[in-house]
Write a structure and sequence with these properties.
The protein is of the alpha/beta class. It has helices at residues 3-10, 33-46, 56-59, 64-75, 81-99, 107-116, 129-138, 162-171, 185-193, 210-213, 223-234; strands spanning 20-23, 120-124, 147-149, 178-182, 197-200, 218-219. Helix content is 48%, strand content 10%. Helix 2 crosses helix 5 (81-99) and helix 6 (107-116) runs parallel beside helix 11. The radius of gyration is 18 Å and the shape is globular. Mean pLDDT is 91; it is low at 11-15.
């Protein structure tokens, strides 16, 4: 189904009274998932694996421990996950130091729009707090967020709703009156289970499984398009 057709159908089921917007991070705030895939390919080749970056399609939304379990199940208990993680972060950090941290199209616009309309904002990412805050501070957007919830601040990871429930609870808002921006199926499921309204902005995964797309409030190519949707349909 085309995105415009999808949104025309889903717009009929909108919930009103928007109180807050919660953002995923990699692939949603930052255009970095492809950099991670690139670094996995490089480090995987160093470790003797071809096309290692393709694993990212199976691990989007996972926290550190989930990824560790995934790789050891696939490549064996002898897989040196910690060594791999340290090395790929080194490769990706070097790339971003040289080229900058890319942000997603429309990010600054929607952050300003929500701020001007006094809508609370949060980040809910599976990344560690040290890793997340480093990138958020480097691009100067921490001032927009009331809270930032990271993977090492919860005990369960997406698609479990814990991180979104924690974000809404700390914002002191009603789950039903919140939007969650996500790029991965696991994140969409987590937001829906928390009682939120998930909106998909596709990144590496262009289309979620049909049963996941059914629970979306809307789906857009960019965050800029989401501004028009919020302006015309919610606020």
């Amino acid at each position: 189904m085309e995105i415009n057709e999808f949104n025309e159908i889903k717009a009929k089921t909108l919930r009103k009274n928007l109180e807050a917007v919660v953002f995923d991070m990699d692939g949603l705030i930052f255009n970095t998932e492809w950099i991670i895939k690139y670094s996995w390919d490089i480090v995987g080749k160093e470790m003797g694996f071809e096309n290692f970056g393709d694993n990212i399609f199976n691990t989007l939304g996972m926290n550190h421990n989930q990824r560790k379990e995934y790789f050891r199940e696939k490549y064996g208990e002898e897989f040196e996950f910690d060594k791999f993680t340290e090395r790929y972060r080194e490769v990706s950090s070097l790339y971003m130091e040289k080229n900058g941290i890319p942000i997603k199209k429309g990010l600054k616009n929607i952050l300003e729009y929500l701020k001007n309309n006094k809508i609370k904002m949060a980040v809910a990412t599976s990344s560690s707090r040290a890793f997340a805050m480093d990138k958020i501070k480097k691009v100067g957007i921490e001032k927009y967020f009331d809270i930032i919830i990271c993977g090492d601040m919860v005990t369960k990871s997406k698609p479990d709703p814990q991180i979104y429930i924690k974000a809404c609870d700390e914002l002191k808002v009603n789950y039903n009156n919140c939007i969650a921006f996500e790029d991965s199926p696991k994140g969409i499921i987590a937001a829906d289970l928390a009682g939120m309204n998930p909106i998909m902005i596709p990144d590496l995964i262009k289309n979620a499984p049909s049963e996941v797309e059914e629970i979306l409030l809307a789906k857009f190519e960019s965050l800029d398009e989401a501004i028009d949707f919020i302006e015309n349909k919610i606020i």
